[in-house]
Amino acid sequence: MVVAEEEIRPPRIGPAVALYVFSLFGGVALHKGLDLHGWVLVPIYAVPIAALGWMIVQKRRMRAVGAAGCSGGKAYQRRILGLALAYMALLMLANWLNSQFALHGIAAVLVALLPALPLIGMILAIGRLIIDEKDEYLRVLHVRQMLVATGFMLSVCSIWGFLESFDQVPHVPAYWAFVIWCGGLALGTLYNEMRP
């Protein structure tokens, strides 16, 4: 009796990414929406922390079997990490400056633009990933992931905008569009893993 060799599938990171993104968004929504404080937040934020650990384990497993990485991937990860750290630092600085000095006029505009600069850098880094990627198949996967993210973001923003115009939901600052788009990247990752 001959047993066919089972096809070995590389570890999948999409479910871990999706769990992380949506549990983090859900945690923030619960935290802010219900005005929760104290120890009750521990289980709410334990889920995205566990999902982040799962993502790290899956990424290491992917590297171990040679399924992770692309020609432009490591440089992209370095750029995104540096820009994310710059975003957090500039956001804290901008909030502190505004709270300490009650900025207005051109000073308020310049300080308000500070956190936007790293986000613009992230968009450029994502574009650079597509340009730097030498493998055409991986480039198609990146583009498809971004198309899914763009469709998700446009859908959410359109629905929210109509609900807002009918006074059914509160106003949300426009910079949340980028955050929603990043959440859509998780959906794009899942979509890529489900399709051949």
Which structural class best describes the helix and strand composition? mainly alpha
Kindly, what is the distance between the CA atoms of the first and last residues, rounded to a whole number of angstroms? 31 Å
The value of Rg in angstroms is 20 Å
Report strand %.
under 5%
Organism: Stakelama pacifica
Keywords: Membrane, Transmembrane, Transmembrane helix
Transmembrane segments: 12-30, 36-57, 78-97, 103-131, 143-163, 175-192
Protein name: Transmembrane protein
Give the topology, please.
Blueprint: H1 14-33, H2 41-64, H3 73-101, H4 105-113, H5 116-132, H6 136-165, H7 176-194
Helix pairs in contact: 1-2, 1-7, 3-5, 6-7
Organism: Stakelama pacifica
Protein name: Transmembrane protein
Transmembrane segments: 12-30, 36-57, 78-97, 103-131, 143-163, 175-192
Q: Can you tell me about this structure?
A:
The protein is mainly alpha-helical and 196 residues long. It has a domain at 12-69. Helices cover 76% and strands 0% of the residues. The protein has helices at residues 14-33, 41-64, 73-101, 105-113, 116-132, 136-165, 176-194. The longest helix has 30 residues, at 136-165. The model has no long low-confidence stretch (mean pLDDT 87).
